[in-house]
Amino acid sequence: MLAIPPSDAQHTVFFYSAIHKYTGMNVIAPFHPETYVWCMMASGSGLIALDHQTFQMASSRLYWLTPSISVSITLHSEDSECYLIFMEPLMLAKQRGKWGIARNLALPSVLQPGEIALQNTGKLLLHAEKLYAEQLHAESLDCHIEESGLHLQHTFQQLHSFIMQDLLEQQSKDPSAKKLFDLSIKYMHTHFDEKITLETLAGLAQLTPTSYSRSFKKEMGISPIEYLTGLRMKHAKESLLKNNSTVTEIAAAVGYSNPFYFSQTFKKATGISPTLYLKRKQLKVATASCFYFTDDLIALGTEPVAAVDCFHYPGIAPADHQRLLTASLNEIRRAQPDLILCDQYHLSFLEQLKGIAPAVVLRLHAEWRDSYSKMAEIVGGEEKAKHALAQLEFNIHDAREQLRHALGKETLTVMRVDHRLVRIQGRGGHPLNKLLYDELGISPGSIVPPDQTSVYYEPEAVPSLETDHLLLQKHHLQAGSEKVFSQLQRAKHWDGMPAIQKDNILLISNWFLMSYSPAGRKRIIENLLHYTSG
């Protein structure tokens, strides 16, 4: 390729390279694209993970993949059809009256990696199907390579032009949107190391600061200041890991004149200070958590110097809990950690933990991969985390097939009995629900709520439950869950439950907490496979 000097007459053109089609329940091995890729979900459902961001794949959705990002794709349903269309970008540039060509990996300003929302997806799928059919035709016939190549390029250009035209039409409906993306975002990317005011960005978009902020958040999902801060933190982290610069120098290089304010902002974004981030792979880490942080950290290459659980569980007397708390805090002190990781159930002890070492709260929620990825970043285990998540997708795919053969259309329900009530897990919200009913494809029992995380019943009031298998956890034994379970067994509908009549009951440990991490989910899958194989 020619080396093209800067020119005002430059155009990026995409040329077709290849198309692949994946069908049924399938796992596409993790890869890092060397060029740009359109990922198109024609039908069915699945998951696509782009670096640390995961998207639910559904029929007619489109995703833009860019060079060097980590991509893993799992197709969850038998009717799944997914196309990957690879393309090569070339830059045409006119210099001194002559045109030249160069490979160009600069990201088009109208596109950002991730899901791309189109107005007309029906025609898009027709273009993709036509391109794939022509590719098969070219491979099967003894035709001239040049002739078939021209047909493929023509069909691809129709598809690509259709997408770009759809996006441009969306922008043209709101002229300020083009200014927001093409001017203000470009300005932030090129001037992040300088002082940037909201007034400056709003002026580029020809809007008032208030209107600009409102429009920006509507388009991007975050405020302009949050976007700029994220951009600066990204560059700061890269500089901390690559350069021997001081924190003060890096702060100035990403647009902060006050190193103290930079450190505060960095800590808010990452959970730890720039100084700790520099030596994150050598940190002595302690944990204070009800969750399985120890297993996660070991898998990420960091063994905790201390691991405690200070939560005041029901059934534990206040005096006994105080003794436990004192012993736990002393255990952490003796370990002399550089950092303490704790969960949301330890917020009431946060100040005491901070008196020992800097503490980071990892709030676990339904999007558990976000918390796991944050933990990985804190200890420098990003690559191990990517591998663990990719391996988990393979495990889920294999287990789904085995469970389909073992269970067929038999149903399964998760029940937790605590010291007061009986809880039936639903299909929504909780990571355990998503794993069992969505990712593993198990059919739920009759009273499993479709859109709720769970429902609670008095033990005597549990309705008739048509389920072939029952996963049961007795929670808070010290507080009296056995008594509640005895009441449940005497309830009107208990003996009539198919799972009870067939003795299909599996007593489980705390799968609810285990479902928040790859290691825990792997153990859940192993337990399920062992249960169904018996």
Automatic annotation (TrEMBL):
Keywords, comma-separated and alphabetical: Coiled coil, DNA-binding, Transcription, Transcription regulation
Keyword Disulfide bond listed: no
Alphabetized InterPro entries for the sequence: ABC_transptr_periplasmic_BD, Homeodomain-like_sf, HTH_AraC, HTH_AraC-typ_CS, Tscrpt_reg_AraC-type_HTH
Ranges in coiled-coil conformation: 382-409
PANTHER family: ARAC-FAMILY TRANSCRIPTIONAL REGULATOR (PTHR43280), HTH-TYPE TRANSCRIPTIONAL ACTIVATOR RHAS (PTHR43280:SF28)
HTH araC/xylS-type domain span: 182-280
Alphabetized Pfam families for the sequence: HTH_18, Peripla_BP_2
Record's protein name: HTH-type transcriptional activator RhaS
SUPFAM superfamilies: Helical backbone' metal receptor, Homeodomain-like
